[in-house]
Amino acid sequence: MDYSIFISPALGLIVGLLMGLTGAGGGILSVPLLVFVLHLPVAEAAPVSLSAIALSAGVGALLGLKNKILRYKAAGFMALFGLLLSPLGLWAAQRVPNAPLLILFSATLFFVSTRLLLQARREILQLPRKNSKPPPCLLNPEVGKLSWNIPCARSLMFAGGWAGFLSGLLGVGGGFVIVPALKRYTDLPVQSIVATSLGVLAIISGGGVVFSAVSGNLDLSLAAPFSLGALCGLLIGRALGKKLSGPRLQQIFAILTFGVAVSLTIKGINAL
Fold first, then answer.
1. Rounded distance, CA 18 to CA 15, Å?
2. Is the pLDDT of residue 132 over 80?
């Protein structure tokens, strides 16, 4: 009997809960879970992960659009370049051996976990941010929209393209690229940054899912229950997050991510 039909939604539920509680991208832990529990290679786990991200981020983006905090022009612009490079990442993932992909994924997790730990430490100690020059994308308070210019467009284009490539290559969604980029290059409030990031992720991940399905690299029997489980977990996590979220929870998630990175590194080295 194939127990993956029952295990897949349970894994999705775990990923969704973490997404709802921490705001972290689902692909950060969904791909490792699929690799360790269902023994999928990264190239097969990535499209399944993207399907869950596309569904969950799409719901979150619609809620942001309803609340008028999603900057849809910026999201569409970044997603456009992400969609252009996402197929390139998917193409590379099918041709790169699994062991190097595991090591590359673990390096990404090391980067994300370190950044989360530093961010949580700064919030706990209430350390002030270093003063810097104004970002290139400034919000016009009179019309409530971003004022576009060449440096602004160039910054968002690069961030969107890089997120799209990593989304296709590793199935990580790219939220760990989009959110810091929006914080660095814009002066949008945090809620608007999160909603705009979800809009970008929904489009990029959705495009990756379509490309994978057309090329025959998407296992719908795993992707569908995994995605539904992630969506349910996300909704539960959002409800619990009002009481449990915070820098301490972010620290725990970062330590967990760091541990997963170590495990993936060992698995990748042994597979070489």
1. 5
2. no
Q: What is d(CA 112, CA 18) in angstroms, rounded to the nearest whole number?
A: 15
- Report residue 36 as tokens: 């360790």
Per-residue burial over 109-119, b if 16 or more Cβ lie within 10 Å, else e, is bbebbeebbee
Indicate if the pLDDT at residue 25 is higher than 80: no
Which 8-state DSSP code applies to residue 196? H
Average model confidence (pLDDT) across the chain: 83
Question: SS3 for 146?
Answer: strand
213-237 pLDDT, tens per residue? 888 888 888 899 999 998 898 888 7
> Exposed, middle or buried, 196 (CB in 10 Å: 0-12/13-18/19+)?
buried
List Cβ neighbours of 181 (8 Å cut-off, separation of 6 or more).
155, 156, 159, 163
Query: Which residue would you say has higher pLDDT here, 57 or 248?
Result: 57
Which residues 6+ apart lie within 8 Å of 42 measured at CB? Answer: 31, 35, 93, 98, 101, 102, 105, 170, 171
Is there a contact between 228 and 16 (Cβ–Cβ < 8 Å)? no
Residues 6+ apart with CB under 8 A from 268: 99, 100, 101, 102, 103, 106
In the prediction, which pLDDT does 150 show?
A: 93
